[in-house]
Specification:
Length: 105
């Protein structure tokens, strides 16, 4: 039950990132969530591999105190099923800050 409730809360928090020009989509099932990061939102164009988006996001998210799974297309995460709202707020804020560090506001 917590996974469904917490997952809905996390998706709501992460959906605020959709206002940014480089966040193409936010999706999830329960607590398994994904933030899609794009070079061009209108065209859904991906970043060039030479940009090393995954590597940059790995460093930035760790600098903000979280360990997630950055990939070439964005950030995947699956926090513990026992996670609570204050920790979800920390996670969502850290992801936003890491994206700002790598791609600007």
């Amino acid at each position: 039950a917590n996974a469904a409730r917490a997952g809905a809360y996390l998706l709501d928090r992460l959906s605020a990132l959709l206002d940014r020009p480089y966040v193409g989509n936010v999706r999830g099932k329960g607590l398994m969530t994904f933030v899609e990061v794009v070079a061009d939102k209108a065209m859904k164009a991906k970043f060039e591999p030479s940009f090393n988006l995954g590597g940059k996001l790995t460093a930035a998210t760790r600098a903000h105190g979280i360990i997630v799974r950055p990939v070439a297309e964005g950030i995947a995460m699956a926090p513990p099923l026992t996670i609570q709202e204050p920790e979800l707020d920390f996670l969502a804020n850290a992801i936003g800050a890491a994206l700002d560090d790598v791609l600007g506001t």
